[in-house]
Specification:
The structure is a homodimer of 112-residue chains. Chain A is of the alpha+beta class and 112 residues long. Chain A has a single domain, classed as Winged helix-like DNA-binding domain superfamily/Winged helix DNA-binding domain (Arc Repressor Mutant, subunit A, Orthogonal Bundle), CATH 1.10.10. Helix content of chain A is 54%, strand content 16%. Chain A is built from four helices and three strands; from the N terminus they run H-E-H-H-E-E-H. A three-stranded antiparallel beta sheet of chain A has the order 1-3-2. In chain A, strand 2 and strand 3 form a beta hairpin. The longest helix of chain A is centred in the C-terminal third of the chain and has 25 residues. The first copy, chain A, is globular. The interface between A and B is medium-sized, with 32 and 32 residues. Chain B binds a DNA duplex (30 and 30 nucleotides) through helix 2, helix 3 and strand 3.
Chain lengths: 112, 112
DNA sequence: AACAATACCTTGTAATTCTATGTATATATT
DNA sequence: AATATATACATAGAATTACAAGGTATTGTT
């Protein structure tokens, strides 16, 4: 597990990207997928994830549809048009930032 | 300029790395160097930098020596032994995190 | 029946960077 | 000489955001 501060600013980009790739996902599914894709190194807590999904919904980046699985309600989240646009912007910014950071901190690894 | 949250968790790694490479630096010099190395994309505000340097000093990672340049006092910061150890740990964690994040968000760019 | 896993939620906390503001000296420009 | 810009430090409070802790309820496993 990484220092939790490292994740800041990247969580929404991760969510946007997962939803863009998978069409629609529910919260628990997102947390499991992140855990799986990161080999257990990024463990999204539900205390982080659900408020983030709600905020992104409030900001117009996501919508959701509730479906009943037996008696249980699942919220499937998907990107809005605005969310798709933001995804492109966020990922571009993140990519640029990661490149800059690599250059700054690991100059010997960053090939021009 | 990047969304300010992105820098979180990386600032101390940047400072530790710069001091490790340059021996000793003063605050203003650090901010200018970061600006220069990042092509103006990371602009450390002094409201961020000086408190960070103070905290890292309090945590035993840095020490400083004051020198007078004319009438002006400069604080030259340098790594302590503990700071050198932390630098290795922080950079390893950061490198691992960046690799994980790349895999998660830019899978098509991350070659196994 | 008991437990773990699934699936959602809320409140308050902690950590960290930033904004705004302040002080003062040194250098460059007009 | 006066003014503006750059240098160099600092602090207080705001904003953001992931987390911890706690809660509810259903489903699957032993």
């Amino acid at each position: 597990m990484y220092s939790k501060e490292l994740l800041k600013g990247t969580l929404s980009a991760i969510i946007l990207n997962l939803l863009a790739e998978n069409g629609r996902m529910y919260g628990y599914e997102i947390s499991q997928r992140v855990k799986e894709l990161s080999d257990g190194k990024i463990l999204l807590k539900d205390g982080s994830l659900y408020p983030a999904l709600q905020k992104m919904t409030k900001d117009g980046l996501l919508t959701y549809k509730e479906e009943f699985i037996g008696k249980r309600v699942r919220k499937y989240y998907l990107l809005t048009t605005k969310g798709e646009e933001q995804k492109v912007l966020y990922l571009a910014e993140l990519k640029d930032f990661l490149a800059t950071l690599n250059k700054l901190v690991f100059p010997q690894l960053s090939l021009a």
